[in-house]
Amino acid sequence: MSLIEQVNVLKKNHNLSKHERLVEGVLASIENGSLTVGDKLPSINAMASEIGYARKTIVKAYEELKHKGLIESRRLKGFYVISEETNITLKVALLLFAFQSFQEEFYNTFRNELGSRFQINVFFHHNNTTIFETILSNIKGKYGMYVVAPIQNTSVLPLLKVIPAQKLLLVDRYVNLGSDYSFISQEFEKSIYAMLIELLESIKKYDRFILFFNEKDDYSPKGISKAFQKFLTDYQIEGTILNEYVPQDVKKGTLYFIKDDSTLWPFLKNCLEKELAIGQDVGILSFDDSIAKQIVFGGISTLSTDFIEMAKMAANHVKHGLKSQTIIPVKLIKRNSV
């Protein structure tokens, strides 16, 4: 049975609105094989003429089918079937930085909270604007919802604003797209400053406080270094910011604030080699919590956002079509390393 025939049959179903009959007609046509991936749907004008519905009704139905990830519109060419997954409620694009432990935690929670009727395709931009632009160009118009961890660079704002506000949720890092856009993001500067004050007495046990932070790295939130420098100044703490860790350069009596795990693990290895006791001879404060940091050396103290909570909130946003504008503060998890 053709698409037009399916819709005409569904006209008898008075429990469905006009646009729902058209949506169901396309779903049935895909399921019975009369429409397959690559097939072109009738134009809006042609469909309106064939079934006698208003153009705005056809547009609403086609938009819903796009939202489900079943069809896409091609400029000056029309609407085409791109998926046969008719059991999917919504097709979601999830664009993250990389598959690091805390982002893996976010993804697993997000996927479990949404359930099987939501199809999630995950992409990684590695904080590279060229990759970011390429991915967005390739997935534009193909998903019902876009959940994006953005690069904190003004050059990406026009790329993000191409996506309708109601279909875009920013997670993890914050960029200002205006009041219409939703976000569930971290806050760094105020939260970290407050946590360092909470740790003040422990910090004073050490002769020096060092932050490893590359100011030229766009991936690293500048709020971290700003909070650190303000803390040193306000509380007259001896310390400095270094761009990188030099292997073997571990000094007794120093507290190290290590942002990147790629630095943390070699640093811990060097401490073992020099027989320096973590939490006594040297202190360590890390960023982004993980299971490993809960275990090694009796526990590594961390400043971390609750990515599980962030993922749950993001899934709730996607499922219910809410408007979300939430800042999640960084929290201190104190263990034996400080």
Number of strand segments: 14
Strand content: 15-25%
Shape designation: elongated
The SSE order reads HHHHEEEHEHEHEEHHEHEEHEHEHEE
At the third CATH level, what is the topology name of the largest domain?
Rossmann fold
| Average predicted confidence as pLDDT | 90
**The CATH fourth-level homologous superfamily of the largest domain:** Response regulator
Terminal residue distance: 71 Å
Biggest sheet overview: 6 strands, parallel
Instruction: Tell me the domain tally.
Output: 3
Rounded Rg: 26 Å
Order of strands across the widest beta sheet?
A: 4-3-5-6-7-13
Number of helices: 13
Low-confidence regions: none
Helix proportion of residues, in percent? 25-40%
CATH architecture of the largest domain: 3-Layer(aba) Sandwich
Quaternary structure classification: single chain
The CATH first-level class of the largest domain comes to Alpha Beta
Helix/strand structural class: alpha/beta
